[in-house]
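fyi for ur records
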Amino acid sequence: MQIELPEKRYYSIGEVANAFDVNTSLIRFWEKEFDILKPKKNAKGNRKFTPEDIKNLKFIFHLVKERGFTLEGAKIHLKEEKKKPLETFEIISKLKNVKAQLLKIKEQL
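which gave:
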């Protein structure tokens, strides 16, 4: 999945929800369910997601929406593998982006 967000230090929950094409309520729900998600909150209580939070959300989205894990299964997967699957997932995502770009170039030829 390709998420397009501008390079920023913090993202609002609306920006994140639009990037993932989900409702903000799902993002809030996942925040409660997964300990790995800890967005900062300002004085008004608005959530501000860091790029690290976005990486974690991408991985959770991949597990739940793309691979079909249940929430409990995704939690167990995250706890068992800690950082290793996240790094592997990032590498696979980058390779998929490179593949998509190469296919696009091939079509233009």
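The chain has one domain: 11-108. thats all i got for now
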